[in-house]
Amino acid sequence: MSRRLLGVALTAALAATLTGCGSAGSGSSDNTLEIWIRQPPESASAKTAKKLADAFTKASGVQTKVVALFDDFETKLNQQAAQKQLPDIVINDTAQLGTMQTQGWLREVDKAALAGGDQLADRAWTAAQGSDGKYYGAPFSGQAFAMIVRKDWREKVGMEPPQTWEDLAKLATAFTENDPDGNGQKDTSGFVAPAGTKRGYASWYASSFIYANGSDFLKANGPGKYVPTANDPKFVEAVQYLQDQFCKTKTVNPGAVSNDTTVTHEVFEKGQGGIYVVGPYVLARFVKGIGTDKIEVLPVPKGPSGGPGTLGEGENVYMMAGSTMEDAQKKFAEFAISPEGQRIGMNKDADGAIVRLPVNTTVDMAAERQDPRWKVFQDSYAHAVYAPPVPSWTPIRQDSADSINAVWADCAADVKTKMDELNAKLTQELQSQKAS
């Protein structure tokens, strides 16, 4: 048996044990609802999560405990599952739904029985849907990717906002070559990119360009079935465009092929690069750290062969299996998706938003946030692309990241050849997930 299939078998056995043993030793054993969120401890976002939980306690009388974790979040969840001590609630990425659902960790969500569920955007509900067509999370936050750009640099080099990929490449070159910060040194880059392989970041970053060029990693081929499209000409064109930035024009920040988002945020904040394709969750941080008059938000330009498109993501509230507090789980999910819960999570224009774009359609974002740059992200959400509901997106993203990172790190690598190889890997992965 292959290591991957062995892992699936062991995971299935673990899931059966977990769901069969109830909540013995779970976080809810003391009648306190334990809520895990993937945020750095003591961060502004973690504090917003605590405000949300405290407001829920005030409204419901249910006591809560918020656990904020960032590094190795999924590993720690696996450890808790092995000990039959899963938290009651997990607020986590939409792309993690398949992985958690196939391990038997998630309770199914009845849309019709969830108070306020009919107020949520249809696009957000698609990201709470498993490969079997059922729902396993309550949509909590949406986000679409756009470009945060150093406006002061762009004006210094005398260029207009880019409308095409060619324009974007020229702007990146100007940021790299023309001393936009005026310090007399050639020490700036055009793009900053989290292009490492950790948690699949290279794939995560590249996806906005892939979607903007009218391509995708997978194509639906019947109910619950997919074929990979990593060697599609539009896909190859997008990866080649980015390889050219790394290797030909050298407009990407040094060390990017090893960086994750934590490092990349700092690179941008320190003025080492001027174009960052990223979600809205860092906007308030950069406004505070760099200066509101120095940054702007621009949509990712359409690619030469497709678009518009950009990465769509978000978070769901997951009600974990094995809890003895099922009624409290449901009440928390309903509070989180309510207008009050959404407004608390949005945190207005301040740093620490855990609701990036509200998924409750009755919430007026413009009334909550005065910064007009949020509207660019909201407009981009209309053509945002979520990860498809395969049983597990994680290995697909990781395989893609490994291959894409390899052609950025090795300038002699042929993109088409490597994407052919990636397509073969993804075919095998889909077969192992019985989604081929």
Strand content: 5-15%
First-to-last CA distance: 19 Å
**Radius of gyration of CA atoms, rounded to a whole number:** 22 Å
Largest sheet, described in full? 7 strands, mixed
Task: Name the CATH superfamily assignment of the largest domain.
Answer: Periplasmic binding protein-like II
Could you tell me the CATH topology label of the largest domain.
D-Maltodextrin-Binding Protein, domain 2
What's the total helix number?
A: 17
Q: Output the CATH class name of the largest domain.
A: Alpha Beta
Low-confidence stretches: 1-28
Query: What number of domains?
Result: 2
Let me know the average pLDDT.
Answer: 93
Structural class category: alpha/beta
- Please identify, by name, the CATH architecture of the largest domain: 3-Layer(aba) Sandwich
Basic shape: globular
Total number of strands = 13
SSE string: HEHEHEHHEEHHEHEEHHEHEEHHEHHEHH
What is the helical fraction, as a range of percent?
A: 40-55%
